[in-house]
Amino acid sequence: MVSQQDLPSMQDAGASRGQGQSPSGMGALGRAGVILLTYVLAALELTCLFMQFSIMPYLSRRLGLDSVAFGYQQTIFGVLQLLGGPVFGRFADQHGARAAFTLSFLASSALYLLLVAACSPSLPGVALLFASRLPAALMHTLPAAQMVITDLTVPEERPAALGRLGLCFGIGVIVGSLLGGTLSSACGIQCPAIVALVVNLLGAVLSFTCIPTSTKEASAQAQAALPGAPKASVFDLKAITRLLLQPGVLPVFLVKVISGFPSGLFMVMFSIISMDFFQLEATQSGYLMSFFGVLQMVIQGLVIGRLSSHFSEGALLRASVLVFSIVGLAMVLMANVFHFCLLMPGLVFSLCALNVVTDSMLTKAVSASDTGTMLGLCASVQPLTRTLGPTLGGLLYHSFGVPIFGHVQFAVNFLVLLFLWRQPMPQKKDKVW
């Protein structure tokens, strides 16, 4: 995938941030404190996001919307995040971590404020509900957190540090889902949105007061703004696509998109599959999602970091694609929810390893001044699946049933694995493909 000639340029791109030096301006928190605060902010934002996901179907139904209109909302949310991810990443590179975090939390606050307004009987709820999707273009706290961690860790520590964000995601899935259901049942459907609004305003304050202006090293900041050069626009698409043409970037990015897309289709359709195929009630589906969250916390937060210290990123990437293929074969034979529970650890491992390893490899392949933009591009992969998934996944499911997702996952990842296996395996010390 990456030729031997490409390896020096990829290593040089990460050399400026591979010496373990912290950027200046960390303030009283210091490097470790900023990283810890970043994890906390990511956990808070994800918790609020899953609180929102838990009430959206019920709020839509209360406002008289059918499943088609609800699908339109999901599509709008995915498209806006897809388009906003690279632009937000470029904004983070140009204006720093503090501005990126603050902007994301303010956008989230606007979304929850509109949701609270949509719950009011005296206001046009449907219009406000659809309007609440618009701030999604700037809601990218997780990519901002990934940028900060990338900037403040040496390449050898990066997979483990990025993997710990899986703990934040797991906390968000479990706590957010439970809080959303509990608060809406006890205090009304608007209560989770009010709590999320307050939490995100608090996150904006913490970001503005405690996150440093920039987490990049002085050399990277100088590289980003050369004297006499015109300041590039945040919306400069050429500058964004230029990253994909750098040595070793496009192949890794395509593997990230193609390998994870079949499982993404399945997860997009999971709410329908859990009702129709597994015959689960809403409470049982919640327990299953909690199990998924716990698995992600353990695997991405603990297992991936340990494996990355013993195996190269190329080996871990191939392992994730191999497990994807095996899980796909097993999904063809899956007949009940117990079978799915047996497959879930393998599926979660592949998803976590693919995302963590490719994010780490891609940020090493670009200069330190472009890590935010690169992570913004990576963050657009999931919204792409959410945008195309409902239509394509629904067509496959209604035409061929659940086994088709296993067939597609096996076929796609088997081809990707054959492609990867023909590439030279670098030594572990290289930490690149």
Quickly describe the structure.
With 433 residues, this protein is mostly helical. 76% of the residues lie in helices and 0% in strands.
Q: How far apart, in Å, are the first and last alpha carbons?
A: 7 Å
Secondary structure tally, helices = 19
Whole-angstrom Rg: 21 Å
Strand percentage: under 5%
Shape: globular
Structural class label: mainly alpha
Helix content: over 70%
How many E strands?
0
- Low-pLDDT parts are 1-22, 218-230, 425-433
Whole-number average pLDDT? 81
Give the ordered list of helices and strands.
HHHHHHHHHHHHHHHHHHH
Largest sheet: none
List descriptors.
433 residues; mainly alpha; 19 helices; globular
Question: What does this molecule look like?
Answer:
- By secondary structure, the protein is an all-alpha fold.
- The protein is built from 19 helices and no strands.
- The chain has helices at 6-15, 30-62, 67-95, 97-118, 125-131, 141-152, 158-163, 165-187, 191-210, 218-224, 237-244, 249-268, 270-276, 282-308, 313-333, 337-365, 371-379, 381-400, 403-421.
- The longest helix has 33 residues, at 30-62.
- The protein starts with 5 loop residues before the first helix and ends in a 12-residue tail after the last helix.
